[in-house]
Amino acid sequence: MIINGNLVGGNPASIDEDLIVTGDFVVSGNSIAVNGNACIGGDLDANNGIVGNSFYVNGNLSNLKIRSPLQHKTAVLLI
C-alpha cells in the first residue's frame, strides 16, 4: 500500500504486504502491524508500538515499543 502524504489519526494500519508512507505516520490506538516492509518518509509516532518485520524511518521515532515479532524484524533510523 502506498500513501502519498501524511497518515495522521485514527486506529493504526494492519497490512499484509509492504507499506509506504511518503510523509508522517501518526496513529493512536493499538500497534501498527505490517507483515512486509514499512518505509516512512517522515516521522513515525506509533503511539502503542509496532508489529512487523522491517521498518525504515527517515524522520523521528516516537512512542516506539517493539511487540512480538511476526518473523524477523529490524527498526532502522535513517539520518
Write up this protein:
With 79 residues, the chain is an all-beta fold. The protein has one domain. Helix content is 0%, strand content 46%. Strands 1, 3, 4, 6, 8 and 10 form a six-stranded parallel β-sheet that branches. Strands 2-5-7-9 form a four-stranded parallel β-sheet, with no helix packed on it. The termini are far apart.
Outline the secondary-structure elements.
Layout: E1 2-3, E2 7-8, E3 14-15, E4 19-21, E5 25-26, E6 32-40, E7 44-45, E8 50-57, E9 61-62, E10 74-77
Parallel strand pairs: 1-4, 2-5, 3-6, 4-6, 5-7, 6-8, 7-9, 8-10
Q: How many structural units, i.e. domains?
A: 1
* Shape estimate: globular
**Record field, number of beta strands:** 10
Major β-sheet, in short?
6 strands, parallel
Instruction: Output mean pLDDT.
Output: 78
Spans of at least 5 consecutive residues whose pLDDT stays below 50 are none
Number of helices: 0
Strand content is over 45%
Task: Give helix and strand order, one letter per element, not per position.
Answer: EEEEEEEEEE
Gist?
Helix content is 0%, strand content 46%. It is mainly beta.
Task: Tag the structure with descriptive keywords.
mainly beta; 79 residues; 0% helix; 6-stranded parallel β-sheet; single chain; 4-stranded parallel β-sheet
